[in-house]
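Fold it.
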Amino acid sequence: MKVEFLTHKNISEDLVLETLIASEKTILLEGDREILSGLLKEFKRKGKAMLNSQEVRYLLLHHRSTWADYLIYRWKFTNYCEKKIVSAFPLYLLIEPTSICNVRCVMCFQTDKTFSSDKKYMGMMDLDLFKKIIDEAEEGGTKAITLASRGEPILHPKIKEMLAYCKGKFLELKLNTNGTRLDNDLIHAILKANVDILVFSIDSYIASEYENIRKKSSFDTIVQNIRNFKEIRDVEYPNSKCVTRVSCVRMNDDLNYDKFAEFWAELVDDVGIIECNERSDTYNNKLNEKLGDPCLLLWNRMYLWYDGVCNPCDIDYKSYLALGNVNDQSIRDLWHGEKYNEMRKVHLAMNRNSLEPCDRCFI
């Protein structure tokens, strides 16, 4: 479930149509021109109804010169998965500044002590490695970056430099955080880096319930930090395009959606709620006998851990399925490498149950 505080009423269909038509002359790649032509036909039929809320918000906040590129990217992100097309370069990268976390959420793999207490899994990404990844991603054509994955990214002592290095290089820059260490300096760094989406992981609007789920965290501190971010953004950065979101894992069957949304609506721009899945001990999950279709993640994203390990997903938090290391190979070579392609073939052959932990995955 996703609760949105944005409607489609604010977007001008005529302006979108006019912009896409004008962009036909500026899109150079033949494949992208074909996609844009298809988008134009669909928009003429459906109008703004063809756009989801995330796409509408992007168009509202960003200059028209980027609209066509963004909608082409979004089309690829969805359709390449469905059609099982391997793009020339990963469209979307999830980069892990650190695998370390300062909170112990009851549904998270950080509660698995064989992971979080083992030094071979815990560490911080070297800044030079981070810059190498960003440089390759920008040159290769990655359109969206998320700083997150197994740990809490803002624990990295050089997270501000990392954010600054990403500025202006991608269509979307996203940062996920538990919000515990969101001080004034970091708030300014986030806003100066033009982070597009800032996601706060929060699972309740009731202090005691929140602290029972996200252990070692303080509800009052989180609320104050988010309120402070909103005040600084609204007052000192009135033209900021940074969208804030609360992302909730529903842990309680009695969660009141309306009250949850009402509480957080005063502090953030939108709210997302998802059902809880088995992530706290992937490798001891029961085998999933209902597995069938190939995992879509293999065609639209790549995960890069703090030490350069390339992994297909973060459900496999111990990297049983590691596909190589960006210290040894380029992102492009990893994406088209033998291991990645063999894994895709296994999934396409409907044999994902031959891979661990794919055989016990809930996605």
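The first strand starts at residue 2 and ends at 3.
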